[in-house]
Amino acid sequence: MDFGITGKWALVCGASKGLGFGCAQALAREGAHVLLVARGAEALQAAVDRLKADPAVPAGTTVEHVAADITTVAGRAAVFARRKDFDIVITNAGGPPPGDFRDWDRDAWIKAVDGNMLTPIELIKATVDGMAERGFGRIVNITSSAVKAPIDILGLSNGARSGLTGFVAGVARTSKLASRNVTINNLLPGAFDTHRLRGTMEGAAKKTGQPIESIMEARKKTVPALRFGNADEFGATCAFLCSQHASYITGQNVLIDGGAYPGTY
């Protein structure tokens, strides 16, 4: 299937590893030029090198990078100084830390909302009008399955990402965007084999005194697929949402969790 995005320009945030890299890789393999953004310069360079060496990436595909914190004004300025217009934008930022809501002060909440709600909104604001003028645009926000099934210790994430979800539900359905072939959707990952998941599992292992392997196996058993997801399959789903074939899908929350969410809707 030809996704129809060869030669399009994609901005992928949090792209040095994990789900962000999976999205960047899938888009590049479809012939989209990609600009990868992440805070860690060394890991980001390694990701770029990996894509440039990937035999599945078509010849002539451009892979660029900017080492910056996309959640800051300066970081976003650095990105748009490199390139103003994008056809595809993948928003992604590290989730807030887990904990007890009684311990979170105003600064903790502001940081969570700034990184996981306001930053994606700023990126949407900066790019959708240009997309509409050109008659093509795809924005995919990487959020969390906690939007559908809140997790008690992830209150900061639950709140900030749910705010973004509500915003997207409205703006994606405006005729000025939807009628101009500009879509905005959210991808909601469940348990994926990423550094963040392993970090959470390591914390649980220290707290309980159990080996991390036991913690990981127990977590897998809570997923009907009996495994964690991987970045390749997440990226493939992202690439489809960015394709010409997904032009009638907008304002949606696409849950990728191996069947863990127990609800009907």
Automatic annotation (TrEMBL):
Origin superkingdom: Bacteria
InterPro entries, per the entry: NAD(P)-bd_dom_sf, SDR, SDR_fam
Coiled coil: none
Membership in a protein family: Belongs to the short-chain dehydrogenases/reductases (SDR) family.
Name of the protein this chain belongs to: SDR family oxidoreductase
